[in-house]
Amino acid sequence: MSPVLEWTALALAVPLLAGCQGPQSALDPASATARELARLWWVMSSVAGLVLLLVSVLWLYALFRAPRQYPQPQARRIQRRLLIGGGLLLPTLSVSALLFYGVNAARGMLPLGEAPLRLEITGHQWWWEVRYPQGDVVTANQLILPVGVPVDIEVSSADVIHAFWVPRLGGKLDMTPGRRHRVRLQADREGVFRGQCAEFCGTQHAHMILHVEALPPERFDVWLQARTQREAIAPAPGAAGELFASRCALCHRVAGVSDGRRGPDLTDLASRPTLGAGVIANDAAGLRRWLREHQRLKPGNGMPNHDDVDDTTLDALAAWLEGLAP
Amino acid sequence: MSRLREHPLHSILGLVIWSLWFVALYAGQGLGCALAPPAPADGAATWLNAVLGVFTGLTVLLLLGLALFSWRSAAAGSPQRFVLRLAAGVHLVGAAATVFIGLTLLGLPPCA
Amino acid sequence: MKRRSSHPDPARLHAQFERVWGSPSGWRALTVVNHTAIGRRFLITGAVFFLIGGLLAMLIRAQLAVPGYVLLEPDLYNQVFTMHGTVMMFLFAVPMMEGLAVYLIPKMLGARDLAFPRLSALGYWCYLFGGIILTASLVLEIAPKAGWFMYTPLSSAAHTPGMNSDFWLLGVTFVEISAVSAGVELVVSILRVRARGMALHQMPIYAWYILVMAGMIVVGFPPLILGSILLELERAAGLPFFDPGRGGDPLLWQHLFWLFGHPEVYIIFLPGAGIVSTLLPVFCGRPLVGYRWVVLSVLATGFISFGLWVHHMFTVGIPQLALAFFSAASMLVAIPTGVQVFAWLTTLWLGTPRYQVPMLWLVGFLIVFVAGGLTGVMLALVPFDWQVHDTHFVVAHMHYVLVGGMFFPLMAGLYYWLPHFSGRLPSERLGRWGFWLVFIGFNLTFLVMHWTGLLGMPRRVYTYDTGLGWDWPNLVSSIGSFVMAAGVATCLLDLLLHVRFGRPAGVNPWQADTLEWATDYPPASYNFLSLPDVNNRHPLWREPDLPQGIARGEHALVEIDHGRRDTWGVEALSGRVRDITQLPGNTWIPLIAALLLAGLCLSLLLKQYGLALGLSGVILLVLLHWSWRNGPLLSPGANLTVQANQPPLHWQTHDGPGLWGMAVTLVADGALYLSLLFGWFYLGIVTPVAGPTTVKVGAGWLLGSALLLTVGTLYLGGLLRRLRQGSEARLGIHLLLLTLLGLLQVTLLLGALQAAELQPRARALDAVVLVMLLYSLIHCALATILTALQAWRARLGYVSARQSYEPRVVAQLWLYNLGVLWISYLAIVLFPLGWGNGS
Fold it and tell me: pTM for the complete prediction?
């Protein structure tokens, strides 16, 4: 390729590819499956674009050229050619090729056998419960994976239908109450990927975001180990402790302190990047704001308002929560 | 036969048969997987694919036969010519659709 | 053609016809049953709902224009997008297309009205009242908010308490009564009420499209009606059809919904394509290329589109092979569409196109619709669908298909038939402005939206964060949507202005070939003063002066002294005349029935079940009264003798449109029952349930009832055979005996219900059995009541050997009930449901 062509191609490709990037973009793949699906898009959209162009140009040409009279036999010949060639053969061949390709692709993506790592994700209105059966690790709204290792995720739901979807790693799968389905992911590079509930699940469907992070296997092991071999957590001291026990403990679990099941497990809360399943950043200011204004930040969420609690106690509670990291 | 031939519903019979086949195919797959699911690792070479495949083949033969019957019945000049030709076309479309959809039986394991 | 050398003074004839057929104004306009008036009402009401739906769309786009912007609180936003979809689908697209067909079909087919004018009126009122109830919920801010496909458990009582979902389930079901009744009416009218001599293959192509659309409505809507009934029963009475905790399954709802929902897309698209196939030849000055090909394509589309429903469920976790069946069918449906596109293209190629405003919309249609079809083929590919399903990509695709396949052709059609409605032509300039604004605005909004979806934006989110690459495409979409709104406003302005300022259209302004242009513009209520014979597809091209001849009364059925509303009844295939179909005049009954139905709907909404039961009784009485006003009682005061050289009136034969109407209605009813049966097998076999799957029913009682029903049906069959042979001895007594037999059979059925040990609130399978038994109970009771009425009518002499068509209608119901009861018996008692479970 000549340098001019190369540069032109690059000049065209860069903005296009830049436009594809995004933490949740299906066109910015980070796994073999997602890459295959992105390629599928580029191939299909190119062919479709050509077909659309062909049909539109033919149509407009027929409309605007000088009309002409065809003798009967010729008209019949044109008629037969266009109907059989364009109407019958063109779509038949295209969809046959597509079906063949599709069946093969689908077969290639079947999660056959068992993956070395298995975990469970349950959808709740409006947050994700993530369980690592090895070592009984429970977390929420974050999914940490090892790079290069196939992971089987069993998805289900505790209330309504949600859908598990991390576009940069692969396609989506519904989370249906009463059923368990399996989806296999394998990140092939380190990084942070964004997942989001894809099936409309009620008031806060927009705020059901999953932080997905792929770590090198060694670091993943460290991450998991830190949670399986965790030191015992001491309850919050004083008024904050009473507040937690009387209000939070009913719904939230903190290993060794409380056993609530309705809301997210808080045992490793401080290690999570966001609060409210992606509503605000989990920093000192964010945490305090969430405790006071979560109903304004995420209207309709399941946690009752606690704006009657005085600032000092809330601050103390926040300070204790900030320590909940392995 | 002549009553069938001249009945207006004859013209859509081919696609009615296709619909019944389609429902039976889907139901058969569901039932088979509920009763005795073949292992996904076996791929498409399972008893269930074979049974559904034979059923599909028979349906195609039936539809092709009916298409031929309708086409031959459409004698030139008969008042039903249009409807009979249409019926032949519909049977043929039904057969083609059956083949096209049936082809998937060759490529995928039934219950995974 | 011209049979009469001396005909009476046309002006006097017109006046006489007007007296018999005319649609009164003032408050008596509420009694009108005429298809022209009803069609116009459908179109205007549909346009109003379109504007409401469009307004909701503007709210959605305003909210999504920039990240983090909250114009509407989340719950209200969810109501708005749910209602946008609901209004556009149920209150705009389907009724609009049906309304246009109701208006056009008789005129195109050379008839004076549809076969069941009172049913058209009932359909309209149900649509209007249902639409008002639905939109009222929005004003009260308690509108449905679970998305327009109402997935349960989100829409169930546990997760959406309050009336929101009930509005949808009851309101939409109410509106669907309208859709199904129009469907039945159009099927029968197209097959039975045409011009003399018009064989099936000589019908205008539009009639084929509408025939298939109407047939699809008849089969496609009942699954959703059943689903809505079951979900409402779950919400109101706690029957757990969809509750996985009690043996139900949320996926059953999805199956029932999409069993309706996918054909729905084609129900909307086919009439649009029919408009294209009608207009394009006119503007090319030559017949449509490949009429047979197109008919075959339309039939194929109609059937195959029922095999696509699971392609909305590719991500629910169904085995790959099953997905592949539906994926293949979804791709397959592209082929008949391809055939049509190329038939249109060839028509253009071989014709001499004229580039006028309707043609502009057709060009827009082609580009937008083909683009939507192509993304549709992509979505049919299972793995690709896993990525873009439920994202803005699908939103974009769906709008390309629906706006492209329905709205653009509809606008082409409105511009084309505008002179027909008003007698005037719209403005070329405003029309072009309107088109270009809509076209550019639409593509700006939705082309970019594909990209938004690929970048990962799910649909139905009320807001989104910045930094995801979604900001600029959303802003562009929002701007585009306002451009499109400006275009719609321009078209609306054009439509309003043309009524006053448009040029008079003259006769047949577009040089069309079809008979609707042979009426006056606007048309007289009886369409044609005299009914011409038709034996080719292009009557106005063959005989350009046909309109004048018709208006001079030179053709058939110009007699009006008898005071009846007459039109030809023809044989379905050949178009040979077999009777004079006598049509009913204006009446209050449809309005009263619809008002009572609205009352029923409201009382169910407000959970006043006693009132609902009472109203149901009253509704039954009104409908029975309606059925009583048939045959010789159809038009009181009219002279019922026909001239010697004329065929008999339809109710004096063995066959009539009513027989076909009953048959088609039973097809719809059967689709409902089969959906229920599907639910039974689905819950029994596919749903993962713990615990026993056997259901204790009163098997002996059920068997007895089924056997008795068999005897009754055979008895009635014998009676009809003897009637046909001319023997009517003691007809009334026989019918009375049959009534008693029916009563006994219904009692046995009640016994079965009594003896069954059902726990319908605890187990979904028991609930299904309960519904199955109730279904048969209601149907058999109805058959018994109708038989009793027939006995009475036989006594009064309205039913006899010469007039045996009514008991034949009732016999169809008996036969249907027989089939249903035996199938239920086999399914409930004999089918070993234990098979599927335990795995």
Answer: 0.95
